Amino acid sequence: MSDPARTIAFQGAPGAYSDLACRNARPELSTLPCRSFEDTIAAVHNGQATFAMIPIENSVAGRVADIHNLLPSSGLYIIGEHYQRVNHFLLGLKGAHLHQITHVHSHIHALNQCRKLIRELGLEAVVRIDTAGAAAEIAAAGDPTQAVIASELAGAIYGLVTLRANIEDAAHNTTRFLIMAKEPIVPHPKSGPTMTSFVFRVRNVPAALYKALGGFATNGINITKIESYLVGGRFNAAQFYVEVEGHPEHPNMKFAFEELDFFTHEVRTLGVFPQHQYRFDRSGDTAAAASEEPV
What we know:
Layout: E1 7-11, H1 17-25, E2 30-34, H2 37-45, E3 51-58, E4 62-63, H3 67-73, E5 77-85, E6 89-92, E7 103-106, H4 108-112, H5 115-121, E8 124-127, H6 131-141, E9 146-150, H7 152-158, E10 161-164, E11 174-181, E12 194-203, H8 208-218, E13 223-230, E14 237-245, H9 251-263, E15 265-274, H10 277-291
GO molecular function: prephenate dehydratase activity
EC number: 4.2.1.51
Organism: Defluviicoccus vanus
């Protein structure tokens, strides 16, 4: 048994991309596979793990379904973020050759993200629940005509070999994860660039959202993410999940939240955490690309 104090939980089988994200973000921790996102969160509450790694969005597939509904009721706090580059591998049995492969198994998103190779090789796609679980099934079945799209880590865990590497259609394929814990870990206001995540509710009336978020505009705060969804089975009120750049202790953030409180109810902070380096790397790439445009 691993030490719960040095364990991070994730949804999926060993070798899943969430497992890879855990190992890259927190290499000093052991990883704990869980069947569902609910089980992943429960592992922290039950003391099996100290942290949970939860995917929230992918640059190709978009938002991860139901996560924004799950976060506010999880009872956990966001303490960090991690951006994981998704490199898909076509994996097969040892001794198998590419020309033998007739079927490729994987999660629906992984299959959709590798359409060019699947079409090029004339393979029949088979949808599975997850990438790493599919890799385990292919390894156990022992059929050299069956391949799987999964991570290189999954191949190493289940004894599969790489038939083709980096087969994703989009070079930018990246998944953003949130690292969550039972207690908040708030960085110092002067420690560096920070994100603040929160939820609030407004009545479904004209200009309610405009008024609620106006304070962030007038105080120069960048809203990087906003998601809305109905709660409680009602159509007359909406809950919003929001992420902004800044620390709650910064003066402009205090002013913005004062205005937010005036126009909304049930405002709740889900986490204050350091910005990941990926944000700065991407902004640098964008600036460099813009400077290369012809004038």
